[in-house]
């Protein structure tokens, strides 16, 4: 299969590399030094105790993805609409798009442009970083949950799931993928914004009395919104699961913190803004999320580069 990776960063680069290793023809869309080093030396992937280098097509030109059968959409949510509109006239009409992004609103944007029959959604569970240009480092568990947005494409979705499984990736299907991504969003909004503001790792949030209480309050506010939207979750079980899973990511810098430390725009709208909009629609009070949203909007205008 011909696969295009739109955004060959820590997530797209990692999964694209495993698919390339499994025999698929993969073209990686990247930029900057990461692109230059990958073109020159290949992309080095550190997958737990395993290391391997892939030599594939690395590009900054969307037209090089024109013959893709499947596109892994892995850019930051801030760029979803712009890039998808640029990609629409380039791709074959039967090319499928799978969003591996944070949040639950990218599906709506992509579906408006490509239609729901071409778009699939994926919840990614992975701890990975670009260690330095051309090098992706991953630790801990890796799991994907993929689902269709329209029931008529269930069989196509099964084929996509099988391709990932055959590449050695723990991949499962869900007939309720948006609900599954809401559950992931609840974890993200609990730890991502707070870590970005405080520059604390997940474990530091868990261990600090005040940060943990704040995280619990944020989580409860977000659960209030999810319940009002109609997501089928149990509050106490969801809280327990979120903080239990956080224990496995103690040393992890969240994606928003990684972006802040490297001076990149953070996904404030995809993680906080979406929940804020839904809260306003449902008249749900979310004061702590509102506070973090306001601070992060300011920080996004004044990026700070720090040593890590």
Give a quick account of the main beta sheet: strands, pairing sense, barrel closure: 10 strands, mixed
Straight-line distance between termini: 38 Å
By CATH, the architecture of the largest domain is named: 3-Layer(aba) Sandwich
Helix content: 40-55%
CATH class of the largest domain: Alpha Beta
Beta-strand segment tally: 10
In the CATH scheme, what's the topology name of the largest domain? Rossmann fold
Q: Please state the average pLDDT score.
A: 94
CATH superfamily of the largest domain: NAD(P)-binding Rossmann-like Domain
Strand content: 15-25%
Taking pLDDT < 50 over at least 5 consecutive residues as the criterion, the unreliable ranges are: 303-308
Task: Indicate the radius of gyration in whole angstroms.
Answer: 19 Å
Helix and strand succession? EHEHEEEEHEHEEHEHHHHHHH
DSSP summary: helix tally? 12
Number of domains: 2
List its traits.
single chain; 308 residues; alpha/beta; Rossmann fold; N-(1-d-carboxylethyl)-l-norvaline Dehydrogenase, domain 2; 2 domains; 10-stranded mixed sheet; 10 strands; globular
Short précis:
By secondary structure, the protein is an alpha/beta fold.
């Amino acid at each position: 299969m011909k696969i295009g990776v739109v955004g060959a960063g820590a997530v797209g680069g990692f999964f694209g590399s495993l698919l390339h290793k499994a025999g698929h023809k993969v073209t990686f869309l990247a930029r900057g030094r990461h692109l230059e080093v990958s073109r020159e030396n290949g992309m080095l992937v550190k997958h737990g105790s395993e290391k391997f280098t892939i030599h594939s097509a690395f590009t900054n030109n969307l037209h090089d993805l024109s013959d893709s059968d499947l596109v892994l959409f892995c850019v930051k949510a801030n760029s979803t609409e712009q890039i998808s509109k640029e990609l629409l006239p380039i791709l074959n009409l039967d090319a499928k798009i799978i969003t591996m992004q944070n949040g639950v609103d990218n599906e709506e944007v992509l579906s408006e442009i490509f239609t729901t029959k071409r778009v699939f959604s994926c919840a990614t569970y992975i701890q990975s970083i670009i260690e330095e240009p051309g090098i992706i480092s991953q630790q801990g568990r890796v799991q994907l949950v993929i689902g269709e947005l329209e029931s008529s494409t269930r069989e196509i979705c099964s084929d996509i799931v099988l391709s990932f499984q055959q590449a050695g990736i723990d991949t499962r299907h869900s007939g309720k993928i948006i609900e599954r991504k809401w559950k992931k969003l609840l974890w993200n909004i609990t730890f991502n914004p707070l870590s970005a503001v405080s520059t604390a790792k997940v474990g530091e949030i868990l261990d600090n009395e005040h940060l943990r209480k704040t995280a619990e309050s944020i989580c409860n506010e977000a659960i209030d919104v999810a319940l009002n939207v109609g997501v089928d979750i149990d509050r106490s079980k969801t809280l327990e699961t979120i903080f239990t899973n956080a224990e496995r990511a103690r040393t992890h810098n969240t994606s928003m913190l990684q972006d802040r430390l490297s001076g990149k725009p953070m996904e404030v709208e995809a993680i906080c803004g979406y929940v804020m909009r839904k809260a306003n629609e449902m008249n749900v009070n979310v004061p702590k999320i509102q506070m973090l949203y306001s601070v992060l909007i300011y920080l996004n205008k004044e990026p700070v580069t720090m040593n890590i």
